[in-house]
Amino acid sequence: MNKIYSTSIRALPTCVLDRSNLYLQTAEIIMLKVRGSRVLRTSIESIISTRHMTLYVKRMRKEYGNLDKVEMSIWECCELLNDVVDESDPDLDEPQIEHLLQTAEAIRKDYPDEDWLHLTGLIHDLGKVLLHPSFGGLPQWAVVGDTYPVGCAFDKSIVHHKYFEENPDYHNPAYNTKYGVYSEGCGLNNVMMSWGHDDYMYLVAKENNTTLPSAALFIIRYHSFYALHRSGSYKQLMNGEDVENLKWLEIFNKYDLYSKSKVRIDVEKVKPYYLSLIEKYFPAKLRW
Ligand SMILES: [Fe+2]
Ligand SMILES: [Fe+2]
């Protein structure tokens, strides 16, 4: 584990490194004691990481929100994603593009008229390119795993909640109350979420002026926000539009989790359909 954390620390921006070095050392000690599967360890490592620190989220949103890393199309990104491995995924032998197309095709079968939802299935995990060397090769804990709001109290429904006691935000009176820096019904798009592939892909889609409906952006940004869509927490921060969009996220989530069947997708056969959707909702080249 020492090796993993020394890599992770180097990947952190300097301003975050100063404040969170002690926290990462504590995290390292905890991880040495954790016994269990790769998936469990990845999930705990993600919880006790700086991705759930307000300071880190602000820094990463600024750095990656510039979208000055790469220019490429949505489909090129789908192909690039095949080069990365998501350690939190129990099904490592399947290429990422299989998961994307299985999700999209399963939705298409049940909701043939909602073409925006098919495309959302295809692109929801593209933010995992943050793991790729051309995007700085962020460590697994900074890209995958459950996400939550930062800047207000961590809800008790969050899995492995006890590890938040090590997080400096947990002890900060500005951040550890029910509303924290937010107000009732402020709308989730005004709430900072822990950094990861979800928030990054949301920024990419929004800043490249996608014409996808707001429900699609909602699904992309909150699909790992299990405390919301599984436990119903944090509803005090939602506005009317969030309440409507949550219905679509609940539908989507079933396909994200259960589409990992062994049904093989003929990529070349379905590719023209998805290229036509990409053309409808996105520019030919996007800034990433
Ligand atoms: Fe995801
Ligand atoms: Fe997914």
Automatic annotation (TrEMBL):
It comes from Gossypium australe. The keyword NAD does not apply. Belongs to the myo-inositol oxygenase family. InterPro entries: Inositol_oxygenase. It is an enzyme of class 1 (oxidoreductase). It comes from the Eukaryota. Its cofactor is Fe cation. Fe cation binds at residues 99, 124-125, 197, 223, 256. Keywords: Ascorbate biosynthesis, Cytoplasm, Iron, Metal-binding, Oxidoreductase. It catalyses: myo-inositol + O2 = D-glucuronate + H2O + H(+). This is Inositol oxygenase. One of its GO terms (molecular function) is inositol oxygenase activity. Pathway: Polyol metabolism; myo-inositol degradation into D-glucuronate; D-glucuronate from myo-inositol: step 1/1. One of its GO terms (biological process) is L-ascorbic acid biosynthetic process. Its EC number is 1.13.99.1. It is found in: Cytoplasm. Binds 2 iron ions per subunit. GO terms for cellular component: cytoplasm.
